[in-house]
Amino acid sequence: MGLFTIPLYFDYKSAYSHLAKAEAYRLEEDYRVRLEWLPYVLDIPAALGNVETRTEMEWRKVRYSYLDARRWANTRGLLVRGPRKIFDSSLACMGGLYAMQQGNFRPYHDAVFDRFWKRELDIEDRQVMAALCAEVGLDGAGFLAYVEEDGPRELAAVRERAEKDKVFGVPMFFVRGEPFWGNDRIDWVRKRLDELELRRR
Q1: How much is the pLDDT for 48?
Q2: What is the DSSP string of 41-100?
Q3: What strands, in cross-sheet order, belong to the sheet with 4-10?
Q4: Which domain holds residue 50?
Q5: What pLDDT sits at residue 78?
Q6: Element (H, E) at 114
Q7: At 1, is the pLDDT very low, low, confident or very high (cuts 50, 70, 90)?
Q8: Is residue 50 one of the residues assigned to a domain?
Q9: Based on C-alpha coordinates, what's the Rg of the chain?
Q10: Structural domain contains residue 64
Q11: pLDDT value of position 174
Q12: How many domains does the chain fold into?
């Protein structure tokens, strides 16, 4: 019997995707499932306004989100330092696709999340991202070629799929088409998987 697939949309500039990562890994350890990691570039200005024009209500949402993320991070021994600007995570997300194709996803995935949320990684700098790829065992030059050639098209294909799936935020898990949004919904994912009798014995 093959593994049950759980699509999981994430973004490297999402603190909640960072918080969900370890628990998502555990799903594969505890259940007969395979996570399908789908990098989705969030449009933060569309959701929370541009930094220069945010309303007071939008700023309240932003401040609360980081307060909440830090509370979650503290319980897991993680560091979450709010980014100094709204980053374009397209390069990092293409790197995730590239790492998957090269069979070396987790080292890349872990390094990007860890360093970005410590403010130690510029995910918009191609040379920086190529160096990180090389550090985790990927071909840095191959990454640069990918982001010039197939990367943009393949990242756009994920976004088109996300539109069909009606994704509006990350992390978002799907179990038989049912969406679960947020790192605090993984317990519900587990309940569904238990109902499907997929727990490893």
Answers
A1: 54
A2: ---HHHHH--TTT--HHHHHHHHHHHHHHHHHHHHHT------SS----HHHHHHHHHHH
A3: 33-39, 4-10, 172-175, 178-181
A4: 4-195
A5: 75
A6: helix 105-116
A7: low
A8: yes
A9: 17
A10: yes
A11: 98
A12: 1
